[in-house]
Every structure is written in C-alpha cells, then in structure tokens.
Design brief:
By secondary structure, this protein is of the alpha+beta class. Helix content is about 55%, strand content about 15%. The protein has 4 helices and 3 strands. The protein has a 3-stranded mixed sheet with strand order 1-2-3. Strand 2 (about 30-35) and strand 3 form a beta hairpin. The chain is elongated, with a radius of gyration of 24 Å. The two termini are about 40 Å apart.
Amino acid sequence: MTIAAADVIPLTQARATLSELADQVKAGAEKIITKNGESYVALIDAKRLDYYHLLERERIHLVLFDEVEKGLADVAAGRTRDARQALGDLKRGAARRPAGAVGKRR
C-alpha cells in the first residue's frame, strides 16, 4: 500500500480528528502521524496489525528452518564439536573479558 501525502498527519491534527482518522483506517487507509515534522507512529487497522504479526512469526520460522538446514549441513560435513567443550570454551572466554565488554565472534 502506498502512503499519500494526505495520509501523513501532524500529531496535533490527529488529536483533533482521531475519530475521523479511525474511520478512514477502518475503511482501509493507513496513517502516519508525525511529531515535530518526523514520523512518530502509524495508525493501522487492528486486523492488519494481527496480520503483520502473523507474517513476522512466519518469517522467524523461516529463519529458524534456514539455521537448522545450515546446522545439518555442518553435521554432514563433519564440522562438529563436543557441546560440553564448546560451552566450557565460551565460559572461559566470558570470564577473561571485562564486564560489559563485547568480544569478537569466531
């Protein structure tokens, strides 16, 4: 969906016309509410928000499947380590770093 200039509303105007804006959103529009001339929040239909959340959950599942596929390829190629040894290495590395320091991943 394309956002038109008429769909960008200053916060002061949105306060004064919230009921009208809500009716427009319920009819299918999306509104961008600005504050101090910059994007602040979006006003969208609740059903559309539910749909966006569903899409995000599906995307997360696809990312997880991709990670599983990579892990299985590592196992098939023999790129494995003993889990206890790997956890011990991670703990020793964390103990050597100062609190709050972020180390490089290998």
